[in-house]
Protein: Glutamyl-tRNA(Gln) amidotransferase subunit A
Amino acid sequence: MSELNTLTLAQARDALRKGETTSVALTEACLAAIEGAGALNAFVHKTPEIALERAKAADARLHSGDAPKMCGLPIGIKDLFCTKGVPSQAASHILEGFKPEYESTVSQQLADAGAVMLGKLNMDEFAMGSSNETSCYGNAVNPWRRGNDDAALTPGGSSGGSAAAVAADLCLAATGTDTGGSIRQPAAFVGITGIKPTYGRCSRWGIVAFASSLDQAGPMTKDVRDAAIMLEAMCGHDPKDSTSADLAVPDFEAMLTGDIRGKVIGIPREYRMDGMPEEIEALWQQGTEMLRAAGAEIRDISLPHTKYALPTYYVIAPAEASSNLARYDGVRYGHRAKLAQGDGITEMYEKTRAEGFGHEVQRRVMVGTYVLSAGFYDAYYNRARKVRTLIKKDFEDVFAAGVDAILTPATPSAAFGLGEMAEADPVQMYLNDVFTVTVNLAGLPGVSVPAGLDKQGLPLGLQLIGRPWEEGDLLNTAYALEQAAGFVAKPGKWW
Structure:
């Protein structure tokens, strides 16, 4: 058998059931890979004792015949998920030393399914970023390289550590969260699969909040089958989360037939942006032809309010962030600044937040507070909410007209170098989300599938957007695209 840490979830699951390996052996292989990959800075809190303890328990469950699909499979958990007794600081100095006394619903469900937690993964601070350069732990690094260039590349953000860890075979899969593309964009940058389910499909309880009406957890995996396996374990109604949908969770893996004959795939004309790289345009065209060849009907569609999506997102998301992050004040938990003689509570708030929050978080809190302020609430926030409704209606109209899924690029480029996007112009960084934010604003499921390489040998992804609550059908279309694309490239090991 090949190196155990390079297996997919499905391969490892089958090997465990056949008795060809053990969860302990799988876990030890991943822990050794993590120790040898410090240059990637993907794992920021390692939990080998917890991992081996859970692996032994999983082996006992497997031996007894009581084994769910995820039993014994080693995974990484994004640092945004609260994990009991393990640092959970959302990559921010303000939560330094915070060890929750509880477990997030999603990580608890994975643990209940027998999954083995290897540790916590790097990310952008409070999930605010598209390059993993805002983390208090330092940059996560993409395992891919451009041709013969040794420049360090971004793994994308905010789930950059998750993306790097899965692509480099440090874990078999990982959790991510997606507020404006933070699962799908990094998945595309490192050549893996990432799905953001319908808003409400996965519980948000115990996940550090960024923008509550947009955040959604999802899996980041080596292929579409693994995404189906892991998503099923992560989903389900949670009475602790008022936005959690009380819907039955289907067997997503059983729905992967690859048969998409008669499905209608929409190609939105508004996603053809000025200045789009030729390689992205060509890949999109190739993906369209692959789905046509698989028996799908291709239909040109219009999503007329797409051009307003990015500014709408960057009003709503910071507004919700400024509200959610008001709780980090140095009073109850996390960092508290040292105060000078005579300082009062206002000075404590100011100093604590100035020390604890990084520049990007401060910027978004200030933008959010501005658009919620008395003089600008109607001009910005209320107007953005109305435009959001129009964006959602665009998708509803298209789906009502018989479209089953929508094919778009996942990102406007391949992975860029760390430090190449200037801090002085944050808007350039925000443009990385141009193809993904509409999905969050409309609450829809979206999946990124690796579909090719650019001329520098870096992975490029395509995005499929599905009908609400129909992740199984969306994953099956993604499976057909994956089969047609035949993407098997892996980064050359340099770390």
About this structure: DSSP finds 15 helices and eleven strands in the chain. Residues 4-257 form a domain with the Amidase signature (AS) enzymes fold (CATH 3.90.1300.10). Residues 329 and 350 are 8 Å apart (CA to CA). The chain has a mean pLDDT of 96.
